[in-house]
Fold these 2 entries.
Entry 1:
Amino acid sequence: MSDLLDRARTVLETGTGLDEAGVLAILRLPDDDLPAALQLAHEVRTRWCGPEVEVEGIVSLKTGGCPEDCHFCSQSGLFTSPVRAVWLDIPALVEAARQTAATGATEFCIVAAVRGPDERLMAQLRDGVTAIREVVDINIAASLGMLTQAQVDELVALGIHRYNHNLETARSYFPRIVTTHTWEERWDTLRMVRASGMEVCCGGILGLGETLEQRAELASQLQELEPHEVPLNFLNPRPGTPLGDRPLLDARDALRAIAAFRLALPRTILRYAGGREITLGDLGTREGLLGGVNAVIVGNYLTTLGRPPADDLALLAELQMPVKALSDVL
Ligand code: SF4
């Protein structure tokens, strides 16, 4: 362990992430060494990202009925999972943005369960962004699936400052999880977004049955992309989806992954996303925030309930982690 930690310590000094083999070694650490790895990951996060935690709210503009078949996702219209297609109206969207801003969050991400946006969705987004801007001061992000170059350009013109599109899993495992589109199609969208100047938010979901090697592969593919933010999801098996019977990721494996992804991506915003409550519980949530995570989503996720925002904000206050202010990110 000491050799490994010595190597990992260079991340602290140089701000350069561990390579794939180094990430794999962290993912394989015995339980006894996990606290030291989390402590190092926390030091790396504090040194290269600062003490602040970024808070984000998400809202679903169009829920369910997606034509794609991502096997973990209850929003696919191809499974028997009980999420039906529903559109949110503009007043409800504005109210969600207002409530998100009231928590102190700086980010409000508008999400749609689609392969990519059609004209109806782009029109809703245009109207929604305009309406939000009239009454709420918050950064607006979007997650609308795969984009064309013209759509990327339009999002830039609308002032969308960050775009989320997850790689979900390692390239080598992706065909086992999604058959209706390819990993490369996702990568193409991400490259266009990055070239546009919008911030790139790109992460994945762990616990899909991928090997530790494939988890390390995903970390290395994210390194190549250099996203501004990496949301880390843990599978919350949804009834009716092909992965509905999968066991939860072991909490210690989830914490090893948090440390490993932080050591791979020392300067990136590493966000707790879906599945952390069920995978880690309260104690693990705290350990992750002291082990490399520096961003949270407040309130509810897209298809499952999260913790009340007040609980997360109280935990951040207790850990003496300031919430990043809007003035810092504009
Ligand atoms: S993850 Fe996205 S693209 Fe895949 S089925 Fe769910 S909503 Fe559709």
Entry 2:
Amino acid sequence: MRIEIVDLNFLGAEQIIASFLLLGEDSAAIVETGPTTCLDSLTGGLKEHGVAFEDVEQVFLTHIHLDHAGASGHLAELLPNATFYVHEVGRPHLVDPSKLWKSATRIYGERMGELWGETRPVPEDRLVVLSGGEELEAAGGVLAAHYTPGHAYHHLAYLEPDSGALFAGDVAGIRLPGQSYVRPPTPPPEIDLEAWVRSIEEMRQIAPRSLCPTHFGRFDDVERHLGELEQRLQSWVLFIGERMEAGAGRHEIADELRQEGDAEMLAEGAMPGESGRYDLAGDYSNLVDGLMRYIAKRRQEAGSE
Ligand SMILES: [Zn+2]
């Protein structure tokens, strides 16, 4: 099996959202569809690698967020032989994307169309649900599904054992090519720190030779990367909890987190504009909203015990 990264050129920007092509002798599979707005880049990538639409037998989704799976309904129409794999909890949202659309509209408002484009349902008979632990034949090889919640309740990561590549969706964070900085994607509404930390431990156990985050690419320094992600998640939750305690609002907290993050990125050798590129995969207001929601929920649970 050959693995190729297709740059979906999200909003015309390079290397923000990836789709991964798995190419076998006479069949192919895709990990992540990207959003509908990137459909042309994805089909262009298939053509560029000589993959006929009929040859794509599987589409593996890490989770159903629109930047990862938004184009699934359109792809079901374009790829007549493809079966779509998703965690069982994500399945209803592919069959009927209207609830997901509504919930995303609360975050993105008027920018929904420009960012993600239209979503279409995936026919039920094209979907297979997973819960993690499955080994699936794909593109002449194998993919192993691992349940990795934390960023989303229904998140899966997929290991390709030959190369040791782990297609990590969002659970291994955001890290752009040429950078070492790992930004935790923590949007509303399902962030769960404890589950995420367990998933990071699970990824350590899997011990992949490389991590392939959808945002973006392939990185070999697995231990260091996961360590940085875990540490930053923990320190963000502590920091935001303290600031909430002190009465700070979401804008204020997002500004503070941005300043800290920008300084850390510079210290890790990033160019000044790089933070804005990371924002395309997860901006601070959105990430702070997700963590504030998580922290408030935990406090409510603790209060009602
Ligand atoms: Zn996501």
